Amino acid sequence: MVRFVDDAGAAVPLVREVSRIVSLVPSLTEALALSCPGKLVGATDWCTHPADLDVVRVRGTKNPDLEAIGALAPDLVVANEEENRQVDLDALRAQGIPVWVTDIRTVDQAVTSIEALLYAVGAGDTGWLDRARSAWAQTPVVVEGRRFSAVVPIWRRPWMHLGRDTYAGDVLARLGVDNVLSDSPERYPKLGLDELPEVDLVVLPDEPYQFTGADGPEAFPGRPCALVSGRFLTWYGPAMVEAPQALLESLRAALV
Fold first, then answer.
1. Residues 6+ apart with CB under 8 A from 172
2. Angle of helix 107-120 versus helix 239-255 axis, rounded to 10
3. pLDDT tens digits for 189-200?
4. What distances in angstroms separate CA 173 from CA 64, 146, 163, 167, 182, one per listed residue?
5. Strand 76-80 to 56-57 pairing
6. 75 and 95 share a domain?
7. Does the pLDDT at position 125 exceed 90?
8. 247 and 143 share a domain?
9. How far lies 96's CA from each of 55, 86, 159, 222, in Å?
10. pLDDT band at residue 60, thresholds of 50, 70 and 90?
11. Pair (145, 66) in one structural domain
12. What confidence tier does 108 reach under pLDDT thresholds 50, 70, 90?
């Protein structure tokens, strides 16, 4: 056995040759599928990338099928501090299954966290990670010399928004767009539209709520609204390679 330490600071005992991995995090599923496809044996129903992923499905991130995961006899289950419930991870550990917990709240953390995970499982193809690091190394901003304030709704009925300490907030900040709720005591505050501060821009992703041109902008009359890919905004993993330019195009279309 070899011992590694995950993002939560917990020791993770792994066999020397990890060959069976279950991922409970869609963005990390994509990373593992690209870097070590033969090792991935299970993933959640929400793991939609790559599109041709052919593994056993183990329900959702919040309600994983613990029995099905156990039946797969994984060498490792990959989880995330925010996306998965502690009670489920404890139950998996009680079965004797090693669990690796990630905690990713910035672009830099995404690169270092995923790099450590891929090293631990003996991944072969990490070229995309180098490209992601390069893509974010010198990110251009929406408008040179100017920053924009924004609110980022992620749900409606009730309205919920990006708050403090989020990966998506760091992504936008690097592009010159500052989340006005970044000092909120909550990571995803529930605030009515009349409680929001004035902003330069409203950023509307297509997940988890699928905002569209006909569902979202009408709630913010007179304010520019940028419809953006939720995958590029919130998925750390291979999506990071294309994310800067794709997001800039969407933001500039609303602002410039």
1. 150, 152, 178, 179, 203, 233, 247
2. 160
3. 999 999 999 999
4. 33, 12, 13, 10, 10
5. unpaired
6. yes
7. no
8. yes
9. 22, 15, 40, 56
10. very high
11. no
12. very high
